[in-house]
Design goal:
heterodimer, A: 257 residues, alpha/beta, Rossmann fold, six-stranded mixed β-sheet, 9 helices, 37% helix, globular, membrane (chain B), transmembrane (chain B), transmembrane helix (chain B)
Chain lengths: 257, 200
């Protein structure tokens, strides 16, 4: 069953078309959103997070049409969002920042301390919960961002470049967290790192120039790469599959699968 | 971890309150140093500049570091924005007139409050249009320009465009400052401060 349904989505930034007639239906699981810079990944995530408004099209999340501002509130309470640059208040500790977002999400005050402690622990920052955010390293700040996104146990979780700045060990731990979250929620991860997609995602959507270039699973994308053989662009099958899917989309080829 | 207190701290309200208190103290101190004025009863510089400083302080508090996340808040923002702007303006309006109490014909508490409203309105509008960090600039530019240009100018129009330099009883000056406050408040409350950074 689809928790997110996008129909004829069109997004413009002044004269630039960021998304052009995108149709998508996404259900529970971890969905990797791949594509080159400027493909429209962030634009799609921002529309789904209800932060940006589409120029045209319909976006339905958890059964609500979020084009109607009056219906955004209940959806936002069940939504987690990590923007590329989330910004933080320098005077806040890790716990305070996550609690601030819990307040934005209207979590009951009585439940907030436990929810904050759990979210902070899930990203491995329990021992830094009382540290000022400004004193943390870039990777730790990224984990604070992930903690605030999951503090309300969201049904829809939108992560824009969540692994940027994480070291290899943290990325492996993060993939495990993604798989755990994807068991109960619809998780969309925008990334440039195809190995993250291969390791943690159940489905892949590839965007190029504002359009859906490919949809499938990491296995089907790898299989596409296998078919191109070692001469394709990329160091492993899924990278070659990514390049082949992009090339095929750009040359207008059909029936990749 | 009370949510409202976290909100207040996120908008630097403790620092803003301290800065408003500091502005008042500074204005009171300056008002008592009569020998700094050519005319010992001349309060115009105080009435023009203290509200400007207070408005700049209020404008700084309209900045949000996490605009992208704030926009995913469940509740609409306008009541919080309105409470913050009106609350801080009311506080400044209660404090600043302390500097011009007494025998100050024309440039006493009414002129101070009127100028505070006008400057805060311009600053709030600038926060919505330019962003909170630069919100102090248009009011600073306007009041400075009027301060330098309005001396010796006569006529009905000057009571409107040079509202920061007018005595407290000038209806045209009140209309201009009140209009600026209304416009700025509506703009800020409806739109919020313009996002700054990569998406600004």
């Amino acid at each position: 069953m689809s928790t997110i349904r996008v129909t004829g989505l069109h997004v413009r930034h002044r004269r630039t078309v960021a998304l052009d007639t995108v149709d998508l239906a996404l259900g529970r699981g971890v969905h990797g959103l791949l594509g080159p810079n400027g493909a429209g990944k962030t634009s799609l995530i921002r529309v789904l997070s209800t932060v940006a408004r589409p120029s045209a099209g319909r976006v339905e999340i958890l059964g609500e049409d979020v084009g109607d501002p009056r219906r955004c509130g209940p959806v936002r309470a069940r939504l987690g969002y990590l923007p590329q640059e989330f910004g933080y208040y320098p005077g806040f500790t890790v716990s305070e920042f996550v609690a601030y977002v819990a307040w934005l999400k209207e979590l009951p005050a009585a439940d907030t301390p436990a929810a904050v402690a759990r979210a902070v622990a899930r990203v491995g920052l329990a021992d830094r919960a009382d540290a000022k955010v400004r004193t943390l390293s870039g990777g730790m700040i990224r984990r604070v961002g992930i903690a605030q996104a999951i503090v309300n146990d969201p049904d829809v979780l939108l992560l824009d470049e969540p692994t940027a700045g994480l070291d290899p060990e943290q990325r492996v731990e993060f993939r495990a967290l993604l798989r755990e979250l994807g068991a109960t929620a619809t998780v969309i991860v925008s990334t440039h790192l195809v190995e993250d997609v291969a390791a943690a995602c159940t489905e892949v959507t590839l965007l190029d120039a504002g359009r859906v270039a490919y949809r499938g699973t990491p296995a089907s994308l790898s299989a596409l790469g296998e078919r191109t053989g070692p001469d394709g662009m990329g160091d492993n099958p899924i990278e070659r599959g990514y390049s082949a899917a992009l090339r095929a989309h750009r040359t207008g080829a059909e029936a990749l699968r | 971890m009370n949510g409202v207190l976290l909100y207040a701290r996120s908008r630097a309200l403790p620092v803003t309150l301290a800065a408003l208190a500091g502005t008042t103290a500074f204005a009171v101190w300056a008002a008592d140093r009569m020998d700094t004025y050519l005319d010992p009863h001349r309060k115009l510089p105080l009435v023009a500049l203290a509200p400007l400083l207070a408005a700049a302080v209020i404008g700084g508090s309209l900045h949000t570091a996490s605009d992208e996340l704030d926009r995913t808040a469940v509740r609409p923002w306008w009541p919080r924005r309105q409470a913050q702007l009106l609350g801080l303006t009311a506080l400044a309006a209660a404090l600043l007139p302390l500097a011009v109490l007494g025998d100050t014909p024309g440039f006493g508490p009414p002129a101070m409050i009127r100028n505070l409203l006008g400057c805060t309105g311009i600053t709030a509008a600038a926060a919505a249009v330019l962003g909170a960090r630069l919100s102090w600039l248009p009011a600073f530019g306007y009041v400075t320009a009027v301060y330098l240009a309005s001396g010796g100018v006569r006529g009905r129009a000057v009571t409107v465009w040079a509202w920061p330099m007018q005595p407290g009883h000038e209806a045209g000056a009140w209309a201009a400052a009140g209009g600026a406050f209304l416009l700025g408040t509506v703009l800020y409350v409806v739109r919020g401060a313009r996002p700054e950074g990569p998406r600004g």
